[in-house]
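Hey Z.,

So I finally got round to the GDP-alpha-D-glucose thing we talked about over coffee. Here's the setup:
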Amino acid sequence: MNTSQRLVVVSNRLPVTVRSTGINICLEASGGGLVNALTPILEVTGGCWVGWTGTDFHETLIESLEQWSSERNYNLQPVFLTPAENAAYYRGFSNEIIWPLFHGLSSRCQFDSTYWTGYRAVNRKFADGVERVAGNRDFIWVHDYHLMMLAQDLRFRGLRQQLAYFHHIPFPPPDTFETLPWRSEVLRALLCFDLLGFQTPRDRRNFIESLHRCLPGVQVSGVGERLRVRFEDHWSSIGTYPISIDYAALAAEATGPDVTAAAEKIRQGCSGTAIILGVDRLDYTKGIPERLIAFQSLLQSNPGMRGRLTMIQIVVPSREDIPEYMQLRLRIERLVGCINGEYGSPGWVPIQYFYRAFSRTELIAFYRAAHVALITPLKDGMNLVAKEFCASRIDNRGVLVLSEFAGAAAEFRNGALLVNPYDTERVAEVVALALQMTESEQCARMELMRSHIQSNDVFRWSESIRTENTASPPADYQRQKAALQYAAGLLR
Ligand code: GDG
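And the result:
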């Protein structure tokens, strides 16, 4: 993409949250790194964002979205989903098949073929939305596992624009991936993108190995960070682009008087004890019960530490309509209750537990108040909390204890203390080491991580994908279209 090219972003959700106040509809901008990184580019290029509203068809909402767009230099193109489409595409295929499978937890998958049918249909619905807004010279950038079939659907309709895809979650090893009943259909569709981006070299390697395993005839060329794959006369560039955060904004916000006052209040609320912090969306991939068990083990084997440290665990509600997530919440709350009941003493509660989202200011205050950030997902595409914790540490203090299975571990090998989240006794030992780390070692490690994030922020991330050279030998679109039609015929 050249930087003047109009950008069309496609993601599962629009960058706004719809709130209904009786008869009125109100739109609130969603926060987050992706929205912050992409909206300036959309503004400058007069682009468009295509995504689900989170609702079924809604006449008044269309007017509200048009009103929103008219106040900015970019448009929001809504996709509406019926409850049945939501159940099959989002709750079913995305959350009960791809999410657990790609995080290496295949025993949790529900391989229901109606989910697949629904997923295909909704990807076509997104293609309708993209086709409605895409201009000839646009750069179309699709995000994440909800929309893996989209490029194939768009090529089917004859769209020839540059199509890029970024995969936010891990890509599993071939032995895991090949259990997906629709493995070759998914890979064929992904190879209709001109550019495929992954979080880590390991994800990209797993993808390439899965191609070799499941798609005979695929050709891979190149070495190092950027590879090129040829399949049925189409070339795709495959690269590693670790996502990041808006470092400058976060570091600046962390110096604010509101944050400083809130951090002080948090420390006082823990009676000056050392603070170990966990911040996660409610999800079984985040390893929250395992982390609580590690903390329990720390208290069990170090009686001298009791009363001298506090764990703060923030859990942000997520996917609450899925029974498995509610069971996870209950499990976490039972564990917190057991540990507090067993080890607490008058004036000291070992775990402060919050099941809600905090404001940005409050969240940064938690980051600044903590002595140790304990981030131990069982598997994670990147984990932005780890990067946000470091960016907030304007004092260059604090220790990051990080799961070796988080994408961020690939960048923080020398700064963080890496742990296997399943090895709860070792996690407890490493937390004990973190609490004893000298200030000079904390400083050296934190500086290393902060300067890495500063020079590899979210703007650099989006720039590196937008300017990637995807130039490929001119595709023979007629042949490619015929191959796609043949593949689709096999699907019916
Ligand atoms: C997916 C992938 C990948 C958390 N608590 C509060 C709050 N947060 C914000 C954090 C952070 C975000 O939520 C969580 O991001 P993560 O990266 O940790 O995890 P996922 O939501 O699972 O994201 C992940 C990511 O996509 C990007 O590619 O890193 O691997 O799973 O930004 O700040 N925000 C507020 N209050 C809270 O209490 N305001």
